[in-house]
Amino acid sequence: MKVVPYVVPTTRRAPGRPMPLTVPTRWVKNIIALFLLPWCAILTQTFFTAFTRATIHQQLWAGAEFWFFTLGAVLWLIAFFGLPRPVIIYVFGHELTHVLWVWLMGGRVSKFRVSGEGGHIVTNRTNFLIALAPYFFPLYSLLAIAVYGIASLFFNVAPYGQLLYATLGVTWAFHLTFTCWMIPKNQTDLSDHGTFFSLVFIYVMNLLLLSALLVIASPQITFASFAADLVANLRSFSEWVGELLNQFTAGHGVAVEFAGSIGLLFGGHRPPLQFPGSAGSLPAVFGSLAKHDFVGKLPTNAGWQPALPK
User: Are residues 31 and 161 in the same domain?
Assistant: First the structure.
């Protein structure tokens, strides 16, 4: 994807006026990705818990929809690894997804190029959603659903429901295999916005879409029940983090009960804060902290500033 260059207007700075402190956008995105990692773990646990419950206890595997979806996915995997790969079909869908998201963001596309060796578009707008859309937006699966929905307005398509699930299996496996195949190939879509942030965001978005498909395919699972499981896992994770903080602070002589305080945000009960000292006062807490040395103190020079790339 190429962006039409534009000239940034120059501004004059008054002499002696300090330069504004700026932080590279990539740094901010990497920090966001770090905060998304716990959500990746929690959402993964919730998805597989719901999938296991639906498959084993609620017999999702016994439904024809499950088997036709699986059949479609298996057939595509055989074709992907055993036959010449239809790269041009993937490239067309990849670039078309860029185009759709450019239009969605109010941009314009002036060039669309697709070939068996690659492709690109020329646009006047870009952001991380436009750049990463082909990796989490299964265009062909959504087109199959749209065609089925439009046809249902004019014809009785109920007898072809199993064909729809088989098609979704093929197209979803198509999206997943080509995504995993293309990511290691030094894609500029990822590197332009930070590879770490891009990979975390792609994982979260694909897992959210898989979770939505699971809820739609399973009559026993609702969005409300899935959200309840997500909140329960989030509460368990917060309590685990609180226990780690308790162990850390206890090792430094500060016994503050974090687990219940964090768990309170997710429906828990609020326990009393436990401070050291005979009276449990705040001065006792700060006095205990002052007795210990901590690694990573900032320089005390008043003129010190963080070194940022120019």
Answer: yes
Owning domain of residue 237 = 231-290
Instruction: Give me the amino acid identity at 223.
Output: F
Give the count of alpha carbons within 13 A of 70, CB side only: 9
265 with 211, same domain?
A: no
Q: What is the DSSP letter of 56?
A: I
Distance CA 50, CA 33 (A): 25
Separation CA 51–CA 61 (nearest Å): 10
**Bridge partners of 123?**
3, 109
Q: Are strands 118-123 and 109-115 parallel, antiparallel or unpaired?
A: antiparallel
306 with 295: CB under 8 angstroms? Answer: no
- In tens, the pLDDT along 182-206 reads 888 878 888 888 889 999 999 999 9
In whole angstroms, give the CA distance from residue 122 to residue 112.
7
Based on the domain organization, do 281 and 213 belong to the same domain?
A: no
